[in-house]
Each structure stands twice: as structure tokens, then as C-alpha cells.
Protein 1
Amino acid sequence: MLPDADDLPDLLLDLAVPHEDINEVTARLRNVTADPGLRRLLDACAEDVTSVVREVDDPGGLGDRAAHASAALGEYFLVYAFLVAVPRVRAAHRELGIPGDITRMTLTDLGRGMALHRRRYGRGGLGARQAHWLTRHFCGRLYQLGRLQYELAGLGTRTAQAIAGAGTEVAAGTPSLNLHIPDFLGPLTPAACDRSVLRAREFFARYFPDEKPVVATCHSWLLDPQLRRHLPADSNIIRFQERFRPGWDDREPADTTPVAFVFGDPDLPAPDLPRRTSLERAVGDLLRAGGHWYTGHGWFPWER
């Protein structure tokens, strides 16, 4: 189910695979062609990524499969697993009537994941954590619609309790949409977010009429209220926060999350973090002062 070496670069470009990885992924294709056992393993992985949504912190899953694979594909093994799965995803989207441009933009998160891998480790490939995140896209639960991504989900217990306490009748498991903010996609402007939300309302009403999400939620360090003390009131991040009503108060420190998103490596020590932008200064200065960052939880009603 993989194109030959002449046509594979076109598929890789369609998936936004970084240009510096294209020659390497294409060259290693001969290892797949020459090894029936490797092809069977990749087929099993493709079945996995299109049928099971995995938690990103799952210590096993695709990581176990990659660990038992031959070294022929190196850290690109999981890239090939998703490449094998692409025709299945495209066919499933076509069956639902989902436009091809939405399919393409959604699946470009594979290339984004590879770019994040290279930014952190300085080499090509895809790790299990990022691969587990991509199972949402390849299982048909998450779609990129303009600036934001939307994941079909059910409310968790604490989120449902916070929303119910604010007067909206929901319970754990109530259909919802989780909003995600992809990296490498320009500024998070209010206008871009407005267009994305409008497009998402039309998309889910048309292609998933039986889901009927009641609320949209977001669980992100970008919703940490402390950012209001460090960023201008008219900044894109603060304007994004204003879209949401407060959810539950999470007091578990999540310091490595903003460090990973802003600087590319969650393990960078606070004293060494650059101060080139207002966001870099905000993240690093609070940590250097002994503070902590937290995951914020927000929600807003989703019009049916």
C-alpha cells in the first residue's frame, strides 16, 4: 500500500513531511520492499493506528512494536506505519463525504510531528508519544479546520462537574469537542480562531450529525491564568483565553509542557531558557523565580 520510490515523495509532501526527511524516507523504502516480515509488521501497525486511540503517555503500544522491529528503518519505523495507513484514512473520509482538503490538512500533523521530533532531538524520525497522538487523526476522531483542531470526545468527570456547577446540564461522557492548538501554523489571532470555530460548527453538523456535542473544551497550558500577569491584555493568547469559561482548577505542576512547546525540549533547564520574546520571558522568568505552570481547563457552549 506504499507508493514506489518515484511517487513516494509526492505523498510525503502531501503530508507536510519536512524536506530534509524526504530523501531518507524514500531511500529506506527498499528495506520495506525487500522484507516480507517488515511489511507484515507495518500492516499490523497500520491496523493499530486506524482503530485504537492511544494515550500519549502509554508506555507500550506503538513503542513496543517499534522496539521489536528491525533496525532497517531506524527512528522512521513509525513514519512508515502511518504512511501505510494513509489510504485507509482517505477511504474512510471519502465514505463520510469529507472534502479532500480537510483530509489532507488533518493528516499533515504527521509532518508536524516529525518536525517536532527533529527540533527536540536534532535528527529525523517519529517517537511513540507523538505517534500515539496521531492515532486520533488516523482513527477519524480529530480534524484540522483552519487554525484549530477539533477532537470528538466525551466529557471527563472533573470537567463535567465544573460545567454542571456553572449551570449547564451535562454529565461525564456527554459529547464534546476538545480544541487543540497546532504548532507551526502562524499566530493564534482572534480572526483565525473565529473562522475556525465557524467552520467547525458547519463541519460537525454536516458530517457527524449524530454526535451532537454540547460544549467545546480546551485543556492547555495556554489557559493558565498566570499568563495574564505576563502578557499584554490584547495579546493573541489572552484573547484566546477569553473565549473560555473556567473549568476545574488543576494544581498539578506542568512545567515541562510550556518549555516543550515554546523552546522545543521539555528537559531544558530554566536558567538557560532564552528571553527573546514576551512569551519566552513569561515562561522562563516564572520558572526561574521558583513558580510553576499549570494546565488550564476551559469550555464554552457549542451551538447545535
Protein 2
Amino acid sequence: MARGGATIATIAKEVGVSVPTVSRVLNGRSDVAPATRRRVEEALARHEYRKPVGAASPTKADGLLDLVFHEFGSAWAQEIIVGVEKAAAPRGVGVVLSELGGSHRPPQEWIDSITSRGTRGVLLVLSRLDDTQQRQLTARSIPFVVLDTDGETPAGVPTVGSNNWNGALSATRHLLELGHRRIAVISGPQAVLCSRARVDGFRSAHGEAGLEVDPSLVKWGTFEVAAGYEHGLDLLSRPDRPTAVFAGSDSQALGLIRAAHELGLRVPADVSVVGYDDLPLASWLAPSLTTVRQPLSEMAALATQMLMTLSDGQPLASQKVELGTELIVRESTAPPTA
């Protein structure tokens, strides 16, 4: 029911359609004309209509939640999946995986499909809904939580993340304390919030030390191996190459180390490398990787628990949760060669 007391019947009367038509729109049925659907959606949004939690529905899927990645296939994504499964399995809830092909917002067709199928809730990883999509899910009492948001989320949207700024600050401080003064950073997409936060932490550590950051040593890309490799070749081929590189992910660090080996450079004797995430592979590399531990599986489990709380019709203790990070020092960093 809407905040103002509007029901499906009053909305149907206002729009000039039947009650079953409004019901079909709410349930994601495709047998409604686009113009009619648009008018009904506008009325639902105008009245802030919200389907009662637990209302009977032939399409309601109480045993499923939707986990949406902008892209997956990496070890990083696997850590997220493990955390979600750990929290969902004891509740007897299955997980439906969706991948957005690199986009950070699901298409409307995807929203229509989960509305039709039904879901206990939606967990979005490095992606988000636009205002219209948020209203559509809210009207149907489908809760959503954002994990590691790609940008600033509107007030009231539950989010779980980690302290990216502090993680980057500690990584860069470590390199500065070792004596490095020419340090590069490779981050993720510049439009993504966590990427910018890590570069900000990198800059802040330099500011603390009274040092300027060379803009040509700040690189943006993806968080994948290829970005680390390509930027690594560029940075380490320079006559004034950096003596250390802070990579925005362990995958980037892996590509960076490959580039260093191809150029005949030793890690850490010729270039120190710090990664981010502390994926399982980090401790198995040779040399083992100094990295910032981001509690990915814990973040995912917490986000899933928050989603379950919302789907049970209960309020959250906090709308925004930020977990801490920890620098793990291993073998890939050392003082610069004199």
C-alpha cells in the first residue's frame, strides 16, 4: 500500500485501467501495452506504492536471491560468491548469478525478468540501479543492497564496502617508509568510486611525506591482469621508471610482475610491487605478494545478511557499513636499490 493509502484499486481507477492490469505490471507480466505500463509505473511511483512484504504472489521466489556482477570470472568475483553462499545456504536460499558484460547498471529487460520470476532480493556488486529501477523494485517490495558501490549511492540505499582510501594510504606509506620516492599507481576505472578512493589514499600518503605526485605515474584502467601488464610495460620501459608500483588489485599486480620479468627486471630488487585484495594467489606467487587485504567474503556475507533482514520485513541497524583493510607485507617489496 502507498504511504498515502492508495491501493491497487485506487491506482487502477486513477490510471483508467483494470485492477488485473495493475497487478500484471507489478508482477512483471509482458502482456501489458508499453504506454499503459508506463502510466501505471508513474502512478505507482507518484503514490510511493509498496507491495506488502510477504504478499502472496504466483511468481514469488522465496528461495532465491539475485547476485549481479558488472562482470565476473576473476578470483575476486569468486571470493564474493563464496561469501554470499555462506550466508545464503543456512537459510535455504539459492543464488542466481547475473553478469552485465562490464556495464554498471542492469538493463530494464533484466529488471522485468526478475520482477516476473520473483526474487527474495537483489545484491548488486560494483553496479547500481537508476532512480526508476529503484522505484520499481521498491513498489514490489524487492529489497536491494549494493556491495562495493561503483559510485555515490543515493541516501537510503543499503551499501557494504571497505575502507579503500585507508588501504591505499597504508600501502603507499609502506613503500615510502622503505625509501621509495618515485612510486606509480595503477587503479581501476576512473568513474568507479573505489578506484578514485585508492588514488586519493595514494596521493594523501605522498602529501603526508611532503612529496608531489608525478601525474604521469597515475594510471587508470580495469582491475584485470591485462591492465597491469599493459601499464607495467609502459611504466617500466621509461628511462625514469618508478622504483615501486602500487596496483589497485592483485590481478593487476600479477600482470605488472609479468611485464617486469619480460623487461628483465627483478621483483623486488629492481621494482617493488604492492597489490590489493589479498586473493589466495597472492601468497603463492614467487615472490609472494605484499598486498592490502580486503575482506571480500566477509563483505559479501554481511551484504547477504542485510538483504535477508530486509526481505524478512525487518529494519537494518545501519544503512551503510564499511569494513577495515589490512596491509599484508610479504616478499614483493624491499628498499630501492642504491
